[in-house]
Every structure is written in C-alpha cells, then in structure tokens.
Amino acid sequence: MKIAAADPASLDALALVAELDRALLAITGDSGASSFDPDDVRGEGAVFMIARDADGALLGCGALRPLLPGVAELKRMYARPGSGAGAPLLTALEAQARRLGYAEVRLSTRRVNARAVNFYRRHGYTEAAPWGKYVGSEASVCLGRILSPRA
C-alpha cells in the first residue's frame, strides 16, 4: 500500500470524497459535504492524502487541517470497504500531523456512525471538547488523540 499527499481537487480525490459522501448520506442522512472545503487542506499545516494498492487502485483518503495551535483536525477520512486501508491511512495521517508539528489530532463524526466511532476508539481516540458548530450538537461526537512524540 502506498499513501501519499495529493491535491484535494484531483479526480482521484474527488472520486473518493464522493464515495464517502454517499456512504455518510446512507448512514447518517447527511453527506457531510458542507463541512469540507478543499482549500482548508491545502497550504501550511494541512495535507490531503490518498491510499493506493500496489497496482495504483484507490483505497481511501483523509486530510488534516489546522484547528487550534498544536491541534490538527482530521477531515474526510475514508477507506473503501474491505480495503484494509483504514488503520494504515490513519497511521500515515498521524505521522504527517507529527511532521507538521501537531501534538494532537481531533475529529467530529455523527454518533449514529457507530463503525467510525468504534474505529477511532480502537485507535486511541477519546471524547474531546466540541468546537465550532459541534458545540451543543447532540448528533455529533468529538474525539481526539494526543500524539506520541515518535512516529
């Protein structure tokens, strides 16, 4: 598996994000598309990454953007079902967060998306204080993880 930075407006990125939008719409009733701006994951302190198999086939994607000083927000994390890309992609994004100088990664997802909530909990994410539009939202759960100093 190869995981590398990519332009969030590339055709491959758009295809993966569209798949994620459809999956989230089916699970939660909201695609989450309004919570993602490709410009937020470009530039300093941000990255969009794509996972591919050995033949170059798309497996998944994810992004980081600055949230607070020392804290990155994980956005548009998606692994195609059965691809096995979820954990390696999350590991690569956390390693990138360390390289970018972040000490913590946070995210928000809908509580009804039990598969995602359980995935993040299995990888060390715990409840975090909500921010922005998530403050007071009963539908969302905010999770975070302090990053170890080494990759």
Label the overall shape: globular
**Sheet bearing the most strands, described?**
7 strands, mixed
Q: How many β-strand stretches? A: 7
Percent range for β-strand residues? 25-35%
CATH hierarchy, class: Alpha Beta
What is the name of the CATH architecture? 3-Layer(aba) Sandwich
Estimate percent helicity.
Answer: 25-40%
What is the overall pLDDT average? 93
Structural class: alpha+beta
Low-pLDDT stretches are none
At CATH level 3, the topology is Aminopeptidase
Walk across the major sheet and give the strand order.
1-2-3-4-5-7-6
By DSSP (H or I, 4+ residues per run), the number of helices equals: 3
Distance between the termini: 18 Å
What report would you give on this structure?
The chain has a single domain, classed as Aminopeptidase (3-Layer(aba) Sandwich), CATH 3.40.630.30. A seven-stranded mixed sheet has the order 1-2-3-4-5-7-6, sandwiched between helices. It has three helices and seven strands. The protein has helices at residues 11-28, 86-99, 114-122; strands at 2-5, 47-52, 58-68, 71-79, 104-110, 126-127, 140-146. The longest helix has 18 residues, at 11-28.
Q: Would you spell out the secondary-structure blueprint of this structure?
A:
Blueprint: E1 2-5, H1 11-28, E2 47-52, E3 58-68, E4 71-79, H2 86-99, E5 104-110, H3 114-122, E6 126-127, E7 140-146
Parallel strand pairs: 4-5
Antiparallel strand pairs: 1-2, 2-3, 3-4, 5-7, 6-7
Write a concise keyword list for the protein shown above:
151 residues; alpha+beta; Aminopeptidase; seven-stranded mixed β-sheet; 3 helices
Brief overview, please?
The protein is an alpha+beta fold and 151 residues long. The chain has three helices and seven strands, in the order βαβββαβαββ. It has helices at 11-28, 86-99, 114-122; strands spanning 2-5, 47-52, 58-68, 71-79, 104-110, 126-127, 140-146.
